[in-house]
Amino acid sequence: MPAPTIPYALPELPDERRLAAADEFIASITTRRTCRHFSDRPVPRELIERCVAAANLAPSGANRQPWRFVAVDDPGLKREIRRAAEAEERENYDRRFPDEWLEALEPLGTNAEKPFLEIAPWLVVVFRVDWEWHGGEQRKNYYVPESVGLACGFFLVACHLAGLATLTHTPSPMNFLRDILGRPKNEKPFLLIPVGHPAADARVPDLRKKTVQEVLQWNR
Q: What is the pLDDT of residues 78-99, one digit of tens each?
């Protein structure tokens, strides 16, 4: 049965105003960076909730919204997560990662030590939900990675616009997150996102982004 519909329209703006709005957004998002050096300055729970509310508005396959956000500020849980993540990362850096990937990471100065997992006031763990119970039956979700990836992008932008720094962390395999946080078997860890304020002495690599001309092609 088709879903009920409601009217849909967007504000009519002159082209100059549309371009100005796009430029304003680009100017803001240009300052977003991956942060590995956090302050322990508190971040209100309400602010995290609002950023997740923004993420929850992302498009998803058949509007299933196949994601769960678990926000962690408990010091004991953060300590457990750090220990487990560093154990996986030591395996990754010592044995699992190919030389080509290690060479790509070298300019970023990353290693298996992840103190930010305890220092950042919040760890937001995003889970993908591959299936759910619906009316007593197991219902499969579709386009799950694409949908969850979009929601994560919305979340990162919302955090940035709220003045918060983030890091996208994937200490794979990440099944330890499901175990530590007691999540059900239909949920799989997708992304671990520390959220907070940059440390007073935080620095980030001076990286160049590709230009729009390098990534945009018109027609063919």
A: 999 999 999 999 999 999 999 9
Q: Which residues of 65-94 are buried (b: 16+ CB within 10 A; e: fewer)?
A: bbbbbbebbeeeebebbbebbbebbeebbe
Residue 3 has pLDDT above 90, yes or no: no
- Domain span holding position 167: 36-201
- Average pLDDT of the residues in 57-74: 98
Q: Give the count of domains, the chain.
A: 1
Long-range interactions of 1-6: CB distance < 8 A, separation 24+: none
In a domain, residue 213? The reply is: no
pTM of the model: 0.95
117 assigned to some structural domain: yes
Q: Is residue 162 a contact partner of residue 120, using CB atoms and an 8 Å limit?
A: no
21 in a structural domain: no
Q: Determine the residue type at 177.
A: L
